Amino acid sequence: MTSVPPPAGAPTRKVALLRTNFLPYSETFIHDQLRLHQRYAPEVFCRQHRNADRFTGHTVHAVEAVPAQAHPLRSALFGATSLSRRLDAAFDAGRFDIIHAHFGHNALYGLRWSLTRKVPMVVSLHGRDVSLLISRDRYSPRWLHYTAGVHALFRSVRLFLAASQELKDLIEQVGCPPEKVVVHRLGVDVARFVPGPGPDPDAPPSVVMVGRFVEKKGHEDGLRAAARARDAGLDFRLTILGDGDLRPRYEALVAELNLGDRVHLPGPAPHAEVVAAMKAATVVLTPSVVAANQDRESGLIVAKEAAACAVPVVGTLHGGIPEIIDDGVTGYLVPERDPVALGDRLIALLRDPALRARMAAAARAKMLREYDNRERVAALEALYDQVIAGR
Length: 391
Fold this sequence. Notes:
Blueprint: E1 13-18, E2 21-22, H1 28-34, E3 40-49, E4 60-65, H2 72-81, H3 85-94, E5 98-102, H4 104-116, E6 121-125, H5 128-131, H6 144-156, E7 159-162, H7 165-173, E8 181-183, E9 206-210, H8 219-231, E10 237-241, H9 247-256, E11 263-267, H10 271-279, E12 283-286, H11 301-308, E13 313-316, H12 321-324, E14 331-334, H13 339-351, H14 353-370, H15 373-389
Parallel strand pairs: 1-3, 1-5, 2-3, 3-4, 5-6, 6-7, 7-8, 9-10, 9-12, 10-11, 12-13, 13-14
Helix pairs in contact: 4-6, 8-13
């Protein structure tokens, strides 16, 4: 366990935060949420404690710390049964008021504590934990424990926090009582994601996409949109920050479209580099799509971070993206899998600095008004209060 002493005047209510792997680089939003609590003191419970040097400042109880203190047998037992004497002892000693699990499948590991210790639980739904329940993947051995146990969650969990309206609708379609689901949108650190100096006036305009190289990110549509903008005579450079199994397909498409001099695939980047790239961007593209396995986005953090940096975003009518982008005001929305429309909107923004400036200012204002992370965490704590009061 790593522990951070509480400050003077620390809150008296406590929340047990459950995430089986704490924490992948792609889930910085959980780290940001934890460090902004004011009235609840969070402690993290996980199967594996990863990237401890990156996500600091938390009290973490783990079955194993990877790679320094690996305990594969203990970890396997917890994964199969949710049993861990180490975590049970820490949970009982903590005297928690509420459990907050991120992702539906992770919530199964906290259900035993919730039922036997009479501690109410809330669950944040983020996308794949909902979409797989309507996909063929729900029959795969990897997910059978979740699909078999999800109705127990529907009965026992006090509140589900859907990251978008679409996720709320989907989880209700598979049997979750509507009165147990609310939309709770994740915020962005508007003090960190601020407008930068802008694009280098002596360099070509910078177009940026960020995310794992997986189907739902729609990066291939972004590449085709870039080819359309190139064919329209526009000079720019496109950088895709991320990596994944689809890299060979991306590289082949770059060659096929003759975009080798325009596209840069530097691989995964530290968060600080992602922030710097967005602050220097002219346009950010988020062309997300529903994948063949039904995987989809919810409230896309990258789109919020770009908007907070006062960069216009061109996204798709997908998941929670329409809740982040006001079409024609803070950016543009186009249909999924429509690289022609995506390219046309990219062309419009690259050609019109005044349009970019108007949208950039409106995007930043929307983030300040609706997505300030401090206010979002305060709203989360208010939901905790309601769940505890209803106990």
